[in-house]
Amino acid sequence: MNNNFLILLASVAAILAVASTVGFILKWRSGAAGLNGTVENLNARINAWWVMAILMAIAFSVGNTGVVILFAICSFAALREFLTLTNTKAADHWALAVAVFVVLPLQYVSVGMNWYGFYSIFIPVYAFLLLPIIASLRGETDKFLIRVAEAQWALMVSVFCVSHVPALLSLNIAGYEGQNLFLIFFLVVVVQSSDVLQYVWGKLFGKRKIAPRLSPSKTLEGLVGGVLSASALGAALFWITPFSMLQAAGLSLVITIMGFFGGLVMSAIKRDRGVKDWGNLIAGHGGFIDRLDSVIFSAPIFFHIVRFFWDVH
Amino acid sequence: MEILAGSSDISFLVYLTTMFILALAHTITAVRGNWRGVGPVKRQRVYFVNHNSHGDFVLVWTVLPANLRANTRPVAGSDYWMASRLKRFIGQSVFNAVLIDRNPETRQADPVEMMVEALDAGDSLILFPEGTRNMTEKVLLPFKPGLFHLASARPDIDMVPVWIENLNRVMPKGALVPIPLICTVTFGDAMRLEVDETKQDFLERAEAALLDLSSDKSNSMD
User: Fold this and answer.
1) Measured between alpha carbons, how far apart are the two ends of chain A, in Å?
2) Given CB atoms, is A21 within the 8 Å cutoff of chain B?
3) CATH number for the segment(s) B31-211
4) In chain A, which residues have their Cβ closer than 8 Å to the Cβ of B180?
């Protein structure tokens, strides 16, 4: 376990070091020609990746509690971004306060307690029914359905879906005891590298636009190249998972495709609200949700497939 | 760092409170300064800001770099900030506010004179020209004449419009708990009183400059 952890840590650090070196050379070469937007953006992204990798490494060293707390903080930041773009009114204040300061902590406490029976239904059932009740008590009917639906979406996307990443720790897989952190590593690395590889393949070979209205930069070539190369990476990582190489490839295919559509859906929401990014928290990456959208859509599906086929319950 | 220099207990308490308030503001609002007009440089200014919430000047203060923050004093109503020991400590010791009495019947000193005094001491000011918190559906209330009197008294100091977006949604009137939402603080271009400009013209120009920074420029009912 510790050996594998160190190997993975060193690999991630090496890849980021190569990326930083390339970024530095590009910056140095374009230096004379003045500012280059793409290179600046690339370097900002690489620096943000370093921060994310370091935070993940710290959380992993702390152990399960560290990971649960890290993703609870991610949920908080994502919820803050999501609620900013909603039609909330002063009349929703108590409902939103409950969502942020009661629902979010309870969800992560139950994830930390491995209480599957609670965390898998708390937001879809209890929060779903409770929040509109609180909102209705103020008697403000204007845009009521829009407001409660947006609040529920905010919780589902930012809290429920994100919490399924640390929920992987509660799976009970025979012969894989104490190694669940690697499931998180597998999910995050495969999905996030799929994002990067789709971008790279699209820049190199992209011709046919897939969703010109939603996300003009997404191309068929980028999608196919990115998804297949990230799935190959996932297959190559099979040795840290309870899966065979073929199974790892199949699961990678599912989560990278879910990740792609997650990006598409979240783009549609951004277009609807007339914004380019969800926030300004991470330099070069926009907001938290801009970076997390693919993980948000793949985590619950990955969790349930693994739970259904591998978990002894 | 200047704030660390003092060695007495009170300055440590001020430092702790400052850090706590900054951390709270960042956690709840992830606030970013958007220096669209003027830049964050050390230069004496009067920042005039839209006013929806008691937290307004905290946000302006949060996005100012530390070296500017130390010399920037909010102008606030003494009726609110003298009301309890805690508020007095925060208002006077932490924010170093210029506390003015908004009631002409009871006031002992002229508010404009107090602001001029602070400017003459070299400090910058954070001012709410609407005079009171805007609780209406309108985006901006008509300005009180204070901003004009200040500009007439010290016409060579830059007046900078500053628009705070979203804080009224974080803490609506009467709310006890803040809702975390992303806020922005946008700084516009500096303006000064022009020669022969009337009070009405100047105030209208200042209102338009501030409104121009908001996302909803119509200033109509919601």
Assistant:
1) 24
2) no
3) 3.40.1130.10
4) 76, 79-80, 83, 100
